[in-house]
Design goal:
With 210 residues, the protein is of the alpha+beta class. It folds into two domains: 2-81, Glutaredoxin; 121-205, Glutathione S-transferase Yfyf (Class Pi), Chain A, domain 2, CATH 1.20.1050. It is built from eight helices and four strands; from the N terminus they run βαβαββαααααα. It has helices at 13-22, 39-47, 67-77, 90-117, 122-146, 160-170, 183-193, 196-205; strands spanning 2-6, 26-30, 55-57, 63-65. It has a four-stranded mixed beta sheet, with helices on both faces. α1 runs parallel beside α3. The longest helix has 28 residues, at 90-117. It is globular. The protein binds glutathione.
């Protein structure tokens, strides 16, 4: 049976919808990640180094995270229900573009709007800054750990994920986030920048000045 760890009303509820639509055997366990000593929260933090929901645990113990992956996985369990178009079709690529739109554009932008754009007192601004300092550091640490024994995110082989990660990591400059505490990330960026293809694209696009 699949286990879903979710937080009520959070993005993980979309996985709850998907499992229910799919009609597969599952159990859904609510978690409050802000409760530091709570055993379920501790378990989810162990399962997912991002300390976020959704977390799916498959029958064989495999852990899946990230909505774009978990929702696609659930949809593919029941192709006859058409929760996503079939893999290796143009329709699937178009659907994944919408899935990514929700996961990486709509979702984080609305969350950030809540924290950053609404009028805030000095105290609230400081709280938001502290919130983001922790959030950025946590994400960088996840990548730092991932790169401990790997040259690239997926292992020995460069993938499109690395080019994407490099562009986002370059934004640490305008974000004024120092990457000094992350030696694996620094070495990774240097490795990527040294790739002939990336050098060619850099030359073609011209130097960035932030
Ligand atoms: N990129 C992640 C984002 C997951 C996410 O933002 N989860 C939120 C709930 S909507 C969460 O667990 N937040 C807890 C926290 O930030 O401490 C995904 O798509 O799964």
């Amino acid at each position: 049976m699949i286990t879903l760890y979710y937080h009520r009303g959070a993005c993980s509820t979309s996985n709850h919808f998907a499992l229910e639509e799919a009609g597969v055997d599952y159990r859904a366990i609510e978690v409050h990640l802000d409760r530091l000593d709570d055993p379920i929260a501790t378990r989810v933090r162990e399962l997912n180094p991002m300390a976020m929901t959704p977390v799916l645990v498959l029958e064989d113990g495999t852990v899946l995270t990230q909505n774009a992956a978990t929702l696609a996985y659930i949809a593919d369990l029941v192709p006859e229900k058409n929760l996503l178009p079939a893999r290796n079709t143009v329709e699937r690529a178009q659907a994944e573009s919408w899935l990514s739109f929700v996961a990486s554009d709509l979702h984080p932008t609305i969350i950030e709007y809540i924290y950053k754009a609404l009028p805030a007192t000095e105290e609230e601004k400081e709280k938001a800054k502290a919130f983001y300092d922790k959030r950025v550091a946590w994400r960088l640490k996840v990548l730092e750990d991932r790169l401990e024994q790997r040259d690239y995110v997926l292992g020995d082989q460069y993938s499109v994920i690395d080019g994407y990660a490099l562009v986002v990591l370059n934004w640490s400059v305008p974000a004024e986030v120092s990457l000094d505490p992350y030696p694996n990330i620094r070495a990774y960026m240097e490795r990527l920048e040294a790739r002939p293809v990336i050098r060619r694209v850099r030359d073609a696009e011209g130097q960035i000045s932030w």
